[in-house]
């Protein structure tokens, strides 16, 4: 024989009301973000970034015009220094 619960026995109106209150309290709280002074300094554009951008633009123009020359000896020296003169 199977017995099902019918009626208000399975319902707790006080608990339902408390769940609604708790949900509204959770929504009221908001996150707060603070950016440190070090992070603000990192966000600023540095002169190095500007100089690098100018160099990249110059190299792009040289490649497009066909005047870019690769110095193979300088590359070989840099690779050698990197691997053998740590």
UniProtKB/TrEMBL annotation:
<keyword id="KW-0805">Transcription regulation</keyword>
<protein>
    <recommendedName>
        <fullName>Negative regulator of flagellin synthesis</fullName>
    </recommendedName>
</protein>
<dbReference type="GO" id="GO:0044781">
    <property type="term" value="P:bacterial-type flagellum organization"/>
</dbReference>
<keyword id="KW-0678">Repressor</keyword>
<feature type="domain" description="Anti-sigma-28 factor FlgM C-terminal">
    <location>
        <begin position="31"/>
        <end position="78"/>
    </location>
</feature>
<keyword id="KW-0804">Transcription</keyword>
<keyword id="KW-0969">Cilium</keyword>
<dbReference type="InterPro" id="IPR031316">
    <property type="entry name" value="FlgM_C"/>
</dbReference>
<dbReference type="InterPro" id="IPR035890">
    <property type="entry name" value="Anti-sigma-28_factor_FlgM_sf"/>
</dbReference>
<keyword id="KW-0282">Flagellum</keyword>
<keyword id="KW-1005">Bacterial flagellum biogenesis</keyword>
<dbReference type="GO" id="GO:0045892">
    <property type="term" value="P:negative regulation of DNA-templated transcription"/>
</dbReference>
<dbReference type="Pfam" id="PF04316">
    <property type="entry name" value="FlgM"/>
</dbReference>
<comment type="similarity">
    <text>Belongs to the FlgM family.</text>
</comment>
<dbReference type="InterPro" id="IPR007412">
    <property type="entry name" value="FlgM"/>
</dbReference>
<keyword id="KW-0966">Cell projection</keyword>
């Amino acid at each position: 024989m199977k017995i099902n619960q019918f009626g208000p026995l399975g319902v707790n109106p006080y608990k339902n009301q408390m769940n609604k209150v708790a949900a509204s309290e959770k929504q009221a709280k908001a996150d707060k973000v603070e950016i440190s002074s070090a992070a603000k300094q990192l966000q600023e554009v540095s002169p190095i970034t500007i100089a690098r951008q100018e160099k990249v633009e110059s190299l792009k123009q040289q490649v497009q015009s066909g005047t870019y020359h690769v110095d193979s000896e300088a590359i070989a020296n840099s690779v050698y220094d990197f691997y053998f003169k740590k």
